[in-house]
């Protein structure tokens, strides 16, 4: 069992619930944006910010999340984490365009 992966899934589900509580359908929009960001990473793996010699970070649009990943070879990218860049404000004051 990969406990890191289980924790990531739990945190992603929590974020979906958080955004869904803010506005109906926003949780789905968030998940779609995470998947879209991952697609951009897979299409242009070298285009994103280097964090270290082996790791990079792509960003989700509209939401304060980044995707940490490693390029293993020309055909393989390992997603390390989907993580929040900062803590979200309460739903009443959260602006998501």
Concise summary:
The chain is α+β, with helices and mostly antiparallel strands.
Task: Provide structural commentary.
This protein is of the alpha+beta class and 97 residues long. The protein contains 2 helices and 4 strands; from the N terminus they run H-H-E-E-E-E. It has helices at 3-22, 26-43, and strands at 49-50, 55-59, 65-73, 76-84. A 4-stranded antiparallel sheet has the order 1-2-3-4. Residues 87-97 have low confidence and may be disordered.
Number of strands: 4
The CA-CA distance between the termini, in Å, is: 38 Å
Helix content: 25-40%
Structural class designation:
alpha+beta
Largest sheet: 4 strands, antiparallel
Are there runs of 5+ residues with pLDDT below 50, and where?
A: 87-97
Q: What key phrases describe this protein's structure?
A:
disordered C terminus, alpha+beta, 4-stranded antiparallel β-sheet, 97 residues, 26% strand
Could you give the topology of this structure?
Blueprint: H1 3-22, H2 26-43, E1 49-50, E2 55-59, E3 65-73, E4 76-84
Antiparallel strand pairs: 1-2, 2-3, 3-4
Helix pairs in contact: 1-2
